[in-house]
């Protein structure tokens, strides 16, 4: 009996581990946080009934790389709040997004901006201070 239990425990652990890392369990959100670019940013952020937290990052930034798993975990933890707030990110290293990143004053990375519900296109999002984020990713 003990041998059976000892052989089942690793199996249960493996199944739970696979479940935790299975991105398909996010109710159809296969890329969450949502990856935005210059062609879909406006449609996803402006004049919506929900707020949006956007991370402007560089794929070459060391801090951004360290933050990525934690930001993904944060997005997964708040996924049930999608009707109120959505989480997204923009890769400012992509040449197609340079104008978008400059428009939102993202010169250092990561930069976080909060766009409230019904945010207008001519209004700038609220930049979240890096000092507040230090404890989050260090």
TrEMBL record:
| A single GO BP | protein folding
Q: Does the keyword Signal apply?
A: yes
Record's signal peptide = 1-20
According to UniProt, the name of this protein is Thioredoxin domain-containing protein
GO MF term set: flavin-dependent sulfhydryl oxidase activity; protein disulfide isomerase activity
| Species of origin | Dinothrombium tinctorium
Q: Which InterPro entries match?
A: Sulfhydryl_oxidase, Thioredoxin-like_sf, Thioredoxin_CS, Thioredoxin_domain
**Entries under Pfam families matching the protein:** Thioredoxin
What lineage does UniProt assign to this protein's organism? Eukaryota, Metazoa, Ecdysozoa, Arthropoda, Chelicerata
Q: Which PROSITE patterns match?
A: THIOREDOXIN_1 (PS00194), THIOREDOXIN_2 (PS51352)
- GO cellular component terms, semicolon-separated: extracellular space; Golgi membrane
